[in-house]
Amino acid sequence: MVTFETLNELCLKITCTGGNDYVFTKAGAFIGGECQGAKNYKFTKVMLGPEANAGRAVLNQLVRRISGENLPLMRVDFGGDSVTYYANRQQHVVVYKLDQGEKISVESENILAFTKDCQYGVRFLGQGVISQKGLATSTLTGQGPDAYVAVIVDGNPLVLSNVASGSTIEADPDAVVCWIGADPEMRTDISWRNFIGQSSGESYMFEWSYHTPATVIIQPDERTSGLDVSVDGSATGSRPSAQRSMW
């Protein structure tokens, strides 16, 4: 049996009881661990993906390459009772336990760890016209009693939900970490002002209306992405990404 919990906001604590279990974590995220007697856990690099089916693993690996949903993972196998700890660049950690059949859609770069009771997949949303994010997203679906997911967030997370309220939620795609529930619609506000550098800086949004209930986790830091359509290079409000050297 494996359980996840957040420790000191910035660390994931994974407790294994009984052994003979495993989880998937971001490669290199391990920072410490303890167990009775000799070390009883080990790390193995995941070459293709966490899918049990080899054909699906190859297909999803190809999709990840095309869509940019890269997912460098390692598998942690537990041979007995142990407690291990994981973190990534002092980012905040959010833990969620999925119900049977419940699905979380999450940017691959924000996945810290998940248990074997989560079925991994990649799907296209067809919304990557304005933002570099949103074209494809990783999904984790609960397939057992211990379907834990840990995501990492730049800064303290903001959680918005319209499941009970029936409200409308809007969020910048470059700040959205993940959502549980219905997929968003893409809302754009592009006019002639964008082309002369006079836009508001909020030209595209994810929107969950009252008939698309979801719980959304947002980070207070936008990714460097987005399509700039202005003359002065500041139309969308997204920070321009640095040009990478070819050498």
Would you mind describing this structure in some detail?
The protein has 247 residues and is mainly beta. It has one domain (2-218): 4-Layer Sandwich (Double-stranded beta-helix). It is 7% helix and 41% strand. It has helices at residues 54-67, 192-195; strands at 2-7, 11-16, 21-26, 30-35, 41-45, 73-78, 82-86, 92-97, 103-106, 111-115, 118-124, 136-142, 148-153, 158-161, 169-171, 176-181, 185-188, 204-208, 214-218. Strand 1 (2-7) and strand 2 (11-16) form a beta hairpin.
Number of continuous helical runs: 2
Write the element-wise H/E pattern from the N-terminal end onward: EEEEEHEEEEEEEEEEEEHEE
Q: What class, by secondary structure content?
A: mainly beta
The proportion of residues in beta strands is 35-45%
Q: Mean pLDDT across all residues, rounded?
A: 80
Primary descriptors:
elongated, 247 residues, 2 helices, 19 strands, 7% helix, Double-stranded beta-helix, mainly beta, single chain
